[in-house]
Amino acid sequence: MRIAAAGMKHQGRLRQHNEDNFLIAERLGLYAVADGVESMPCGEVASLMAVTEMEKILAGLNLDQDATPPFDYAEGIPLPARAMKFAVREANRKIFEKAGSEAKYNGMATTLSALWFQGGRVYVGNVGDSRAYMARSGRMVQLSRDHTVLAQGQADETVSIEFMENYSAATGHELTRALGVNQDLEVQLAGGSPKPGDIFVLGTDGLYLEIRDFEIMDTANSYPPDVAVKKLTTMANDRGGKDNVAVIVIKVM
Predict the structure, then answer these.
(1) How far apart are CA 50 and CA 35, in angstroms?
(2) Considering all CA atoms of the chain, what is the largest pairwise distance in Å, rounded to the nearest integer?
(3) 46-95, pLDDT tens digit by residue?
(4) If we measure between CA atoms, which residue out of 109, 144, 182, 186 comes closest to residue 31?
């Protein structure tokens, strides 16, 4: 299995600085985007720590043996998926400790969405609302799950009238889960077997809040990854560019 990938980040048209980061670690088969929480301090520090710490943790594990701690959640989960979960939780712990080390870092937090190609399979881990998509045979699906007030309210596909009465664009997009907020957290996992022709897209909310899913798919499908990420970033900015953008396009060959 061969993989071609490219990534790009941009501060957008309205933000003063960029709190999004991305990671392409081809040797590990690891790809990730992270979005520092804008309402908190030092979001760019948190998002950079999320991707760099995850890379260091996974690079240091020996997958030839069970090198991850025996947490209760690990039973029945394949070793690479367990390693992914462990890496995200460890990155969270380091961000949480950093946030408590100096006053200027207090409260910093970030989202994270990652893909890890390992042993002929792909493992997905996410916390927050940065997304992972997959396109196959002309159909695009979201592999990650948004951890926001609105998405949580729709989790059971039944939304109460009372919930919608209290919903607003601002409150609905509030995160219910992020790295750095608590000492431990729950990581959303997914995975499967990639096939030649599959396309994966990782993106922060500055991408998908400006561009529809089918437009993301069409662009990623029509161009090589290095061209696709530029076009997607330009499109997000042309539509308003209200937020930072980080995007990775991955093609399996």
Answers:
(1) 9
(2) 52
(3) 999 999 999 999 999 887 765 555 554 556 678 888 899 999 999 999 99
(4) 144
Percent with pLDDT over 70 in the chain: 86
Beta-carbon contacts of residue 169 (< 8 Å; ≥ 6 apart)? none
CB 243 within 8 A of CB 12: yes
113 — pLDDT class (breaks 50, 70, 90):
very high
Please say whether the beta carbons of 91 and 57 come within 8 A.
Answer: yes
Encode the chain in three state secondary structure.
Answer: CCEEEEEEEECCCCCCCCCEEEEEECCCCEEEEEEECCCCCCHHHHHHHHHHHHHHHHHCCCCCCCCCCCCHHHCCCCHHHHHHHHHHHHHHHHHHHHHCCCHHHCCCCECEEEEEEECCEEEEEEECCCEEEEEECCEEEECCCCCEHHHHHCCCCCCCHHHHHHCCHHHHCCECCCECCCCCCCCEEEEECCCCCCEEEEECHHHHCCCCHHHHHHHHHHCCHHHHHHHHHHHHHHCCCCCCEEEEEEEEC
Token representation of residue 75: 């039973």
Q: Which domain holds residue 175?
A: 3-252
Domain of residue 13, CATH code: 3.60.40.10
Alpha carbon of residue 160 to chain centroid: 29
3 forms bridges with which residues in the sheet? 252
Q: What's the pLDDT score for residue 69?
A: 59
Higher pLDDT, 78 or 172: 78
Q: How many domains does the chain have?
A: 1
